Amino acid sequence: MNPGPREEEGLKTNQRITITEVALRDGSHAINHQYTADQVISIAKALDEANVPYIEISHGDGLAGSSLQYGLSRTNEMELIEAAVSVCTASKIGVLLLPGIGTIRHLNEAAKLGIGMARIATHVTEADISAQHIARSKELGLHTVGFLMMSHMAPPRLLAEQAKLMESYGADTVYVVDSAGALLPHQVTERIRALTQSLSVPVGFHGHNNLSLAMGNTLAAIEAGATWIDGSVRCLGAGAGNTQTEVLVAVLDRLGIETGIDVYKIMDLAEEIVAPILLKPQEITRGSLILGYAGVYSSFLLHAERAAEKFGLDARDILLEIGRHKAVGGQEDMIMSVAAELAKGKREAPV
Ligand SMILES: CC[C@H](O)CC(=O)C(=O)O
Ligand SMILES: [Mn+2]
């Protein structure tokens, strides 16, 4: 399959990378959490046939995210998880859980459906709230991942301390998560290195493409020692989306880095099954670019666009203000209040 010479310099070619496909979870943000069971079945089946090791399925904000605050799911996520488990033979289904949004009860329920992985996500400086959930996930026999969101907001040393906490609670892998797509390649390198130097467990990377750096950052992460990588077919994810899985698989194949994923099959499912369900192509629009520029949560984009329409504002002004407030995941309600304040200021400004 590999068509030509490999550019191996700098990357270890004997590395094996484990890919987690997130289009059915992070991609849920991009389609307003409107997945149907039929869509999930056809995507999961095709990912399984392409031999993708892990497929994450949950509301975009993790288990139990379906709410007025984060957006209501069209289909109960447990139904989606069950449907995906029933059609997968090679791929394992994973879930995302943000302690406080999802609870141990939701984790137990998902485990009963036959998942193989749970990723426990916290803000980058709040790893301590993951202890119980990581411990329970381990008791359930799941591959357990600590997922440190908004990693651009912590310097490498602090990030490594937080990762170490997750490892001490039992995490099998810890991820650097560039939720805002704000990290630059050298900052990814520094962060991944800080983790690989202080942890005994593998390190992962989850990128967003708001600054068009998802692929570059992912390669920097791999070069710095990350061996667990997230991708989304057709970039289907929050903001400008994630590292595009089918492209990543092809690039890694050219580099001689093993993923076990069938290059043609992952391309075909991207083109034939996922592309038709996109509401619009995952482009870097001025809105998503601002997310990376201002360091704002990628999943805030559609909320900010709605608030901009409601208050007659430019979504970029709202997102810049949210960036100044250093809002973290879970603070979606701030978007409407910030927009209301900006609109008030605009009305009251002297003409
Ligand atoms: C709100 C959860 C979030 O979408 C998780 C994630 O994928 C990220 O932080 O990038
Ligand atoms: Mn994400």
From TrEMBL:
Q: Which InterPro entries match?
A: 2-IPM_HCS-like, 4OH_2_O-val_aldolase, Aldolase_TIM, DmpG_comm, DRE_TIM_HOA, PYR_CT
What this protein catalyses is: (S)-4-hydroxy-2-oxopentanoate = acetaldehyde + pyruvate; (S)-4-hydroxy-2-oxohexanoate = propanal + pyruvate
The feature of type site (Transition state stabilizer) is located at 25
GO biological process terms, alphabetically, are: L-leucine biosynthetic process
What SUPFAM superfamilies does the record tag this protein with? Aldolase (SSF51569), post-HMGL domain-like (SSF89000)
Keywords of this entry: Aromatic hydrocarbons catabolism, Lyase, Manganese, Metal-binding
Active-site residues from the entry: 29
Database matches in HAMAP family: HOA (MF_01656)
Q: What is this protein called?
A: 4-hydroxy-2-oxovalerate aldolase
